Every structure is written in structure tokens, then in C-alpha cells.
Amino acid sequence: MTRSFPILVAALLFPLSAWAQALPDLGGRSVSVVTENAYPPLQFVDPKTGKAIGWEYDAMAEIAKRLNFKVEYQNSSWDAMIPAVSEGQYNIGMTGITIKEDRKQKVDFSDPYMRSEMRMLVRADENRFTDEKSFAAFEDGLAAAQPGTTPFYVTVYNVLDGNEQNPRIKLFESFGAGIQALKAGDVDLALTDGVAAQGYVDSSGGKLKIIAGPLGAEEFGFIFAKGSDLVAPVNAAIASMKADGTIDALNKKWFVDYKMGQ
Q1: Which one in 39, 55, 186, 255 has a CA-CA gap of 20 to 30 Å to 245?
Q2: Count of CB atoms within 10 A of residue 50's CB?
Q3: CB 165 within 8 A of CB 201
Q4: Residue 81: helix, strand or coil by DSSP?
Q5: Which of these, 31, 253, 210, lies nearest to 120 by C-alpha position?
Q6: From edge to edge, which strands make up the β-sheet containing 43-45?
Q7: What are the E-state strand segments in 124-252?
């Protein structure tokens, strides 16, 4: 990202009463929401309390309140999430999922609730490379990535040589595992969006840093099975949250106040 946390512009377009009247009532129905809990500060397990928390949890709670539905949370690995939602095993998926045309063939997306950009995360004492070009030239450098994710493809096509089998890319089942490998010195680079990158830097105790500029923009959305009747109501709730300042308040809570308190 070009910033350490996303600021989404919100404008008060309609009176709050008008938004309340426009939002549909889902009658208290149960909605299953699946997440990975590995993408701070969007969603993660608080090491102090063991409780799953984050921006997306607060946003989903607010959406559920505005639309009158009950959330049932489930956990899944990243590689299984999109197929599971596509097959109707869960109603909604949330884990900082980038809106992409190829994914739209399998699932429906909500309107974007956040915009982010890829950043390069390295150890704090890294001085062998300073950007994507010098990393590519550093032949011994290894990058961590989760298969099938935006960071994986950006690493392949924007940093390295376009070879998805490049042995310089070390694959991990979760982003958190790749970060642990980075801290341990087993790899030298991990790409993630600026939101998660800054979260890891802030919680690393000075062990990690971000280098260079952004490597491309992406927008996040919730996912649904194709044709889901939840898409339009959730979009209406997101619009109302942007309009009345709720999105801005969540940004401040998780990308300013939370980090300052760490």
C-alpha cells in the first residue's frame, strides 16, 4: 500500500433513517461465515485471550445487526475456502479475499469494502536487497507464499520470472507459517497487502520491516455461492456503513488505535 492502513472515503449520502428503512430484514436467519483467522488485523486469534477478533469480525457483526441475521462462524484453510463456499458448504467467506475475475467464475463477490496494495515484508536487518528488482537479482533469495493467493502470483509475475514452479518460492499452507519462516531466516521475503504487512511489523518487536513501494492494488470483498440471495442485502449494509462513517470508525479502531496499543 501507499499507506500503512487503508482509509476508505465515506460520505453521508442519506439520513440514517433512510438507510435503516432501505435495508432488508432477514428475519433472524442463521448465516454460516467461514474464515481462516490468519490475516491480522482483518481476522486473527488474539494471542493474549485466544479469541478470534479483527476488522472483519466487527464488520460482519455490524452487517448481521443491520440485516437481522445470526452469524455462525467456521474455520477453513485458504485453499479450501473458495471451493467450499462455491459448493454451498458455507454462506459467506471472509479472509481479505481479493476480487478477481477468475474467482468470479466460481463465487459471487460483495462490493469492495477495502482497497489494499502488495508490500514486501522482510527481516529488520535485511540489507541485501531493497526492492523487487534487487531481490530478483539476489539469486540466493527465497520468498514465502501460499499457493493460489494474490501474494503468490505477484511474487511470481511482478518480482520473479513468471515461472510458477520457480524453486525460489517456498510454499506454505498458511501466511502465518511463511511469516514464521521469515523470522527464522528460512526465507528472505514475504509479500502481503499493506494491511497485514503493517500488522505483522507492529507486532514483531522490531524483527520485521516493509521495504520499497507498493506492487499493485487490490480490492477485498466477501464471497458467496453463485446466485446467493445474501449478496444484495450485504451490499446494501456495506453501503450504509460507508455512508454513516462506520467503515471509517473500524479503520481507526483496527489500523490506528489497536496498533498503538500493542
Answers
A1: 39
A2: 7
A3: no
A4: helix
A5: 210
A6: 38-39, 43-45, 52-53
A7: 143-145, 169-171, 189-193, 208-211, 217-220, 223-225
CB 218 within 8 A of CB 99: yes
CA dist 227 and 147 (Å) reads 27
Pairing mode, strands 169-171 and 69-75: unpaired
* Cell numbers placing 194: 499493506
Nearest to 83 by CA among 154, 156, 34, 29: 34
What is the rounded distance in angstroms from the CA atom of residue 40 to the CA atom of residue 42? 5
Verify cis geometry, omega within 30 degrees of 0, for the bond prior to 47.
no
CA angle (242, 99, 166) in 5-degree steps: 140
> What does pTM read for this prediction?
0.71
Looking only at the bridges linking them, the beta strands covering 223-225 and 208-211 are: unpaired
Residue 167 backbone phi and psi in degrees, to 5: -65, -10
* pLDDT band with cut points at 50, 70 and 90 for residue 259: low
Q: Would you state the pLDDT for residue 88?
A: 98
Q: C-alpha grid cell for residue 59?
A: 464488520
Using alpha carbons, list the distances in angstroms from residue 162 to 44, 100, 113, 170, 227: 31, 19, 30, 15, 34
Give the pLDDT confidence of 195-239 residue by residue, as tens digits.
778 878 888 899 999 999 999 788 999 999 999 999 999 999 999
Contact 194, 6 (CB under 8 A): yes
Q: How far apart are CA 260 and CA 44, in angstroms?
A: 17
What CA–CA distance (Å, rounded) separates 222 from 31?
13
Phi, psi of 117 (to 5 degrees): -140, 145
Determine the 3-state secondary structure of 121 from DSSP: strand
Among all chains, which residue has been given the C-alpha cell 487503508?
Answer: 6
